[in-house]
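Hey L., structure's done. Input below.
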Amino acid sequence: MNRRPSGTGTGEELPQPRSLIAPRHLAGTGEIRHITDFLRAANWRERTSRSGGPLVFESPDHAVRIGYTADTIPPQWILSGRSRGPHSPAWHATLGAQCPVEIVAAVSDALAAPPLPQDAAEVWRPLDAHGWTTSSEPGRHHTATSADATAVLRYRKDGDSAVWWACATPPGERWPLWNAVFSQHTPPHLLAAFAAALADARPVLRAPGTVPAPAVGHVRAAPVWVPAAELTAAQRARRAAGRAAAYATAWAGRAWSVHRPRTGIPRPLARDDAPARGRR
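Output:
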């Protein structure tokens, strides 16, 4: 990225003004196509019901939906997964529209890829690694707060119900810029992906004038000029990542169908059952 515009191109060929914003959780939404380009390339089906209606994507196996509603108060992302049996109950999550797309994408990308075996303990590790402070009531509540006290992730358990909750609040503001809520049965690898993106200290690119007003003055903004080709390459990279996720998911599904355990108790091989050398 260049600090000053260069070249003699016109229109979209010219370097574009951007700012590197930190902390990222106060940077505002960003470009929604950062998420939608990936999902389309990952073979998620767009289910928008009407022109101008909510943006909805459904996974290839119809098990998960990701939607963005601009006409609700407040606007938000809505994610839901249907039950896949007694050991995989339904789950639900909402993330406010001002949650940066880089953080939302961490969750949607994880949904489009084969799940990694993780447990809830993994959620806190990236926060600890980035100096977040923690407090807890064993077995019930656990809270992590960013070093500047502008972001919080909390797990709360009351009786048989539990919820994960996060928010980002600029200093001196009464209301959060955005909040996120994950239901009790949200898959742990999604929570871990969310926490890692929330804790990530790297700044994010934003177009001029797009940082939410309550956060202006509380973020570090470094103006840069980004070559148009670099912005286009970033979009191509997102689509390529979506295609890679689709391929990995399809490959994992084929591997499971071949190697899944069979039901019943196999009988031991008798001597006459042993395959002869060279038999196919």
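The mean pLDDT is 85. The first helix runs from residue 33 to 41.

-- N.
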